[in-house]
Amino acid sequence: MAVSRRKFMTSALSISTLAAISTTELISALTSSASAASPAGDVVGKISVGYQGWFAAIGDGSPINAWWHWAANWGASPSPSNNGTLRAWPDMSDYPAKYQTAYANLGSGQPATLFSDYDQSTVTAQFASMQANNIDTAALQRFNPTGGEGPIRDAVTARVRIAAEATGRKFYIMYDVSGWTNMQSEIKTDWTNKMAAYTASPMYAKQNGKPVVCIWGFGFNDDNHNFTAAQCLDVINFFKTQGCYVIGGVPREWRTGVGGSRAGFIDTYHAMNMISPWMVGAIGTIADSDGVYNQFTVSDQADCAAHGVDYQPCVLPGDLSGRQRVHGDFMWHQFYNMCRAGVAGIYISMFDEFNEGNQIVKTAATQAGVPTNSGLLSLDEDGTPCSSDYYLRLTGDGGRMLKGQIALTATRPTQPVVGGGGGDTQAPTVPGNLAASGVTASSVNLTWAASTDNVGVAGYQIHRNGAVIATVTSLSYTASGLNPSTAYSFTVTATDAAGNVSGASNTVNITTAASGTTNLALHKTTSESSHTQTYASANTVDGDANSYWESNNNAFPQWIQVDLGATSPITQVVALLPATWGARNQTMSVTASTDGTNFSTLSGSNGYTFDPNSGNKATINFTSTTQRYVRLNITANTGWPAGQISEFQVYGTSGGGGGDTQAPSAPGNLTSPAHTSSSVSLSWSASTDNVGVTGYQVRQAGAIVATVSGTSYTVNGLNPGAAYTFTVTATDAAGNTSAASNAVNVTTSAAANTNLAAGKPTSESGHTQTYSSGNVVDGNANTYWESVDNAFPQWIQVDLGAATAISRIVLKLPPSTSWGARTQTLSAQGSTDGSTFTTVKNSAGYTFDPNSGGNAVTITFTSTSQRYVRLNFTANTGWPAGQLSEFEVYAS
Fold this sequence. Notes:
The chain has ten helices and 42 strands. It is α+β, with helices and mostly antiparallel strands.
């Protein structure tokens, strides 16, 4: 069982902790303006909620088949005598699947039931509640996945992706390393082999264009987090090399290295992209919140700003069982403190943490919704009636204050019960089909479909990068005053006369056109042939002409390259050296590429003089061309035996000459007519353009993998049994790029010798004692499933996750000779939907013999595409039950 984080944060705020903060530091922090190191994204400027997703029930079909986290003894039904850490009761009204407990009935007389996160309907209902309350992002908790809880955690992750994509919520993986002995190696393997694939989802959270991953537990000064600073830094750097934006869940004393934080970790903390200090168990009153603001938040924010790190402190509703909530005032005061400090983002601890009483998900509002013999409190515990969704609504309003959509206020605007006076409480429907067109260097046209409302829609709020920039009554708006070559995100919400606000529309992402004076390379990604000492290529796009790149010495030729992020029309490269350097001549050429692989020459090799008396720069002009990757090749330097550049600037054509600025229409009807274990075939409908379509960019997880002129393409070199997401965009001769086509998700066929069932969700007709169905996919032939005795027929089933071609099943029993030979009579069935099954192998007797064949049998049949594979047992000569230790399914 995972350890509660509460146990790590029980000490009170101390005078000694405050003493560790110098007076100079505190005054400096109080007088510094706070700002995020990064622009608004999926975590900066957003509300993120911690999503445990760790509840299950016996009979839910999950691999664990236990009352996971609902009870002290997971093998027995939850009850007053079998309550481990349950501190509140959920409002069960939104959940289609319910599981009976051993508690007495609710105060209303209804049965006391609980939910399971193994049910897709549960996860989708919870994500829908996030959508309804404008909660942006969910951080899915992932504890050590290498043990017995691994299969169900994998299954819940898949369900979170489906729910996020259905509701338009972003999600990311948040590793909790508590008690994880072999964390340093196993977390890397888990990311590479399993979790990285989820970044292909269009709803996987990105910040600064990078997939977000959080690691909770580095630097805590306790025996459950025995990791050195070097080990933690190694893991952080691993994720950075994987292209990730790394958040650290750290102790509240991270900056001072005292109390709950290990000493000597400050450089490790500063290596993170975002720091998120933990507060559960440390505060429980409004006075505590003010103490944290004065002792930690202000100085933490200043330290992060000084080191280019984003800051995401926690806000929590309070432990309901400890009567900490004060009908929402405790939580709102935290929102107020964090927003007045100017934090980059806020992390809610937690969405569904019923084990610590800090959940914001719908909770029993009154004792009518609580089992009569449980002793648990309801949301009205202090005498103030609160609706079951009150803390979801409160979180939504806290997010509005963070984003500047409502004014900063210490007075809670959220009413505990909506519409107590009988007024209109129903929000308009979400605006539909938000689209962008006519993108220029400084503006974009937006259109959307009308919302409806029970009374009437009063207007529409236009959101740019999360902040409201205009309110209109029409179904279109032109956003002007934008910066050239800049990425923007837009959404629209509807309002009514009562002030109700709808959920957000779909998000439209655009990048404005370049102007002739815009350096397209500024702050973009670079690469290089080499560098010496600390003089890396990133120095050439930092806007500082005093920092520079220098290649390896005495090793020409050398090169430096910038990725503009998207294909853009370009006409000029400008190279600079520091203004104080002496004159020199460097021999250079310019090449470029649209795909990063195939380069063409834009300007041939020539000598260029850098002279401090004329700006110490070289300008290289060439015919306008549309490119994404621009490379400067250097073969000689009279001033030093290496390539040297301080600023690498790339410029496009002027936007003021009346050129073509209209992008093609989006390609339509993207489909995948075929795939193999290493390739996916794609086809789509042609785009149109006011001048003419010149080609199509095929994108894998958003990255361009090919540019073609036709309307079909086959992507090769893929991994077997892997999930991929593809889109296509169209381009024209002016470099305009269309919106993306619909996304197509494809899982390549498995290799012939890949066990498709390994680690997948299972279900069963029943089991005896602890011998549940999850044992047959754990890769351990010594653990096994055994059905209910003397109750044939029985069945066991595996969900492969997607319809896949299969033609072979291997069944095993423990190989020990203590398991004598036996014959089991069984048949095999398959289904694509989990409801309608067809027979793939008729019933027959199969002999399992430890002395012949390793106590395993192989069943072959004609290849068929199935998702759910079921074995039906009707007899067993060795024991009056179905028995199986491994259930393996293969393509061939």
